[in-house]
Every structure is written in C-alpha cells, then in structure tokens.
Amino acid sequence: MARIRVPEAYQFERNAHIFLWYTLCKGLTLAVFSLVFNLYLYALGFDKQFIGILNAMPAVTSLLCAVPIGLLADRIGHRTLLLVTGFVNPITMLGMTLSGAAPLLIFFGLFNGAIATLYWVSGIPLLADSTTPDRRVRLFSVNSFLLWGAGSLGYLLGGQVVSFAGQLMHASSRSVGPLRWGMAAVVIVGIIGALPLPWLTSPPRQRKPREERAPYDIRLYVRLLLPDVLLTCGGGSVAGFIGLYLTLRFGVRPGFLGTFLTVSGLFGGALVLLAPRFSDWL
C-alpha cells in the first residue's frame, strides 16, 4: 500500500497536531453555529433587531476581556486557558440551545464572547511556540485552512442534521425542533474537539530580565491593528447574517444553504493554503 509522504516543511510536532485537531472541530462548530443560530432565534419568535443585538454580545465581552485575559495567560499559561475554553465553550453552547428566554440568551452570549477570547488569546501563542520559526508560516496557514476552509464543512453538516431532524419530526426544517438539533450538533462536535487537549504540553517559557525586553513598537501595532479592525467590522456587519438573509429573502432551506456556504468556504480555504507561497515570494 502506497504511503502518503508529507513534505518536511509540513511535519509538525505533537502539540501542533493536537491543536490542529481542535481547530478543525472549532471550525466545524463555528460553521454549524453560524448557519443555525440566527434561524433558531427567528423560529423562536425573536425579531431581527434583537438577533442583531445578541450577535453583538460576544464582540462586547471580547473588547472588554481581551487585555485582562492576555495578562492572565502570561501568568497561568496558555495551555491552561485553552483547556478552559475547550471544555467550557460547549457548556455555553448548550445553554443557548436550551434557553428560550431573552435574558438567558443575552447572558450566554456575553459569556460566550469571554470564552471565545480565551481561544484567540491562548491558542495563537501556544501554536507559535509549538513549531520552529522556519515552519511557523506553514503551520499557521494549515491552521487557518482547517478553521475557515475545512471547517466550512460544518455548514454542510448543520444543514443535513437540521434537514434529517425535520424529516424525523415531520416538521419544517426551519422550525424550532429541527434547528435545536442543529444547535445540539455544535455541542457534540465541540466536546469531541476538546477531548485530546489534556495531552497538550506547555512549551518552555523563556523569561527575559526586564532590562532586556524590547519596548513595544506602537506605530507597528497600529499598522497591524487597523486592517484587522476593518475586516472585523465588515465581517460583523455581513457574515453573521448571510444565512438569515438568504432564508428570509429567497426562502432557502437549511440543507441547501449549508451546501452553498460550504462551497464558498472551501474556495476561501484553498486560497489560505497559498499564503506560504505569497509569504516566500514577498
């Protein structure tokens, strides 16, 4: 039997493999959640204004918590925070699945933003420390592909789960019952993704004396921050509401909607894999 030979530049350490598995599952959960959650809220009877407010809750807590969580990560370690987000995040998703009251949904939305911040603050440094500098760009490229490219298969998974549940329940796939099964899929995949996280090892922490630490380059920080702000504002205004818009405007059902979003996500993910080529060229 022929064996697939992985190029040396893509041979990563065990830590990286565990993190990539978690990233893939997180990408799947983000896609399923993005497909199902707004439709679920609309089926519960909430208006579009409340849905928009609820979608903003994670961003609000991320804005408030990012810096304190970053300081906490430096103190207790990135691995510990990643374990917390891996096992607590499915609990917040379960809370959203079982809640039908607006106050509880807002509470879990705010809490979910704090947990999501744990992932971004702890995961990226841990991933950077889990490989050598010459392979780092490729590792981040694969990680982004799994999160946004292969993870987009979650749209397909969510659409099929909702459609299948609708058939079993003899109900419309846009009704509360089948959509709640889609939310349950988010919880299950999240738990599966977190299972290997306890086997992560903490990379050695290299502390420099205070007098040897380089000062922050504020101008470079602002240059890196501005494009991210613009992308985030655009994504927050559009990406989260594409599924709801297509459903309300064109009557698209979750099964077809999931397939449509999966195809577009895979195209975007394929471009992410070209990032190392562009990096080497530039």
Description:
The protein has 282 residues and is an all-alpha fold. It is built from eleven helices and no strands. The chain has helices spanning 14-44, 48-76, 78-98, 102-128, 133-149, 153-169, 176-194, 218-238, 242-250, 254-272, 275-281. It starts with 13 loop residues before the first helix and ends with a helix. The mean pLDDT is 85.
Spell out the helices and strands N to C: HHHHHHHHHHH
N- to C-terminal separation? 39 Å
The fraction of residues in strands falls at under 5%
Low-confidence stretches: none
**Total DSSP E strands:** 0
Principal-axis shape equals globular
Please work out how many helical segments DSSP would assign.
11
| Integer average pLDDT | 85
Nutshell version of this structure?
The protein is mostly helical.
Topology:
Blueprint (H helix, E strand, L loop, with lengths): L13 H31 L3 H29 L1 H21 L3 H27 L4 H17 L3 H17 L6 H19 L23 H21 L3 H9 L3 H19 L2 H7 L1
Helix pairs in contact: 1-5, 1-6, 1-7, 2-4, 3-4, 3-7, 5-10, 6-7, 6-10
List keywords for this structure.
77% helix; mainly alpha; 282 residues
